[in-house]
Predict the 3D structure of the following.
Amino acid sequence: MFHLGWFLGQGFGIQPWRGTFDGNAAHDWMKPERYVDLTSSLERGGYDFVFIEDTAMVEDTYGGSAAFTLAHGEMAPKNDPLPLVPLMTQRSKHIGVINTMSTIQYPPYLAARLMTTLDHLTDGRAGVNVVTSVTHRVAQNFGYDEHLPHDERYAMAEEWMDVVSGLWESWEPGAVVADTQTPMYADASKVHPIDHKGKYFSSRGPLNTIPGPQRRPVVAQAGNSIPGRELAAAHADTMLAMGRDVAQMKAFREDMHERLIAHGRKPTDCKVLFLVTPVLGETDAHAAERERERVRRTHDQESIEMVLWGMSYISGGTVDFSKFDLDALMPDIVGNGEQSSMQQYVKGNEDKTLREVVTGVRQIGDLGLIGSPDTVASKMGDIMDEVGGDGFLFYDPLNLNRRTIAEYTDGLSPALRKRGLIRDGFDDVTFRENLLAF
Ligand SMILES: Cc1cc2nc3c(=O)[nH]c(=O)nc-3n(C[C@H](O)[C@H](O)[C@H](O)COP(=O)(O)O)c2cc1C
């Protein structure tokens, strides 16, 4: 068996809002209902979690202004995901919700306290995706002139994780006595300051709330660069990985296993889920038609601009891709943002034109998962057999609406269950226990 997760890549932001089946998204994206529906549908489909992206800025790298961003609702507007979490879980019982927190936005004490609060409010279903933020624009909203260099951000994130972890452990097991007679609500000898004074953070502790059902909420990590992998190996229970092809996926997972062992952890302690955008259809022919339509659209001016906009963002806001000649060679750019994402476009494409890359290379591909639910389920099984586990994280940003979700949860999930590939229910345990169950 393997795990499934859903990546809500637009965060608590405006979801697709112009399509035939997008409902009233332009006006109700900021209300909880569509996320409540999403969460309960995914639970029905046997997903372990929904993963909410977050970025706090209005992007203006592409074309040197926010015009494209705001016209299309790309990454802005966006609400803070944390208050959404306990609303989202109202109509489900087991599925976990991972919200993103940036180490430059939330001081460790605030983060530890908020996550513990969410763990209580969701009965042990809370998770945090620890990110370092990608662009100067985010950093500038939080007191920096510009963002720290890539590797230093990860050094800061390491310290952030240490402080947050220390605060989560600042109440020993058994510290809460809740004896009404003595009275002793909590035993002071089991509640400790952490007295952290480091390079980036200081926090005295202890946390001023009691441990949640998981004590330590689930920790996720998304960066695939070497420092990103190290952060995950040290702290994460699950990791988002870019799945390019089976060989790369297998190598990536093996690399993570070695790093986990080097950090004194078991390879099974961190589930590596591969991001993928499948193409589902009623039949294989229908899916192939949808795929042809997708490819055809990549040549539309709007699609081209959308990809250039995205590349400008993942460069960390350092490169405006509107400035390049589309028919000149792909520029060799690393950037100061999502370096592993940028590599998806650059590496191996040095002899292609920018237009060929923009229309032909996908940051997140389909891994050949194109077909009817039965066909895709069977291919997923084959891929996982070769890779060795742990599962997939679906991401369907252009089609996210209730109809699409039903295709996954009521079409694909039953086909996967029929083959015994995914869970057919949940034990009555916490999110982490479900995640680590297989
Ligand atoms: C799939 C994926 C999801 C991410 N989600 C977020 C996010 O929600 N918020 C954010 O600020 N950064 C996000 N990031 C950025 C990473 O956390 C990380 O800071 C960035 O990718 C740089 O890391 P890398 O060079 O290791 O790839 C995401 C990256 C990837 C690849």
Notes: The pocket of flavin mononucleotide is lined by residues 53-55, 100, 102, 131-134, 150, 222-225, 228, 240, 275, 338-341 (CB under 6 Å). The first strand starts at residue 3 and ends at 8. The mean pLDDT is 95.
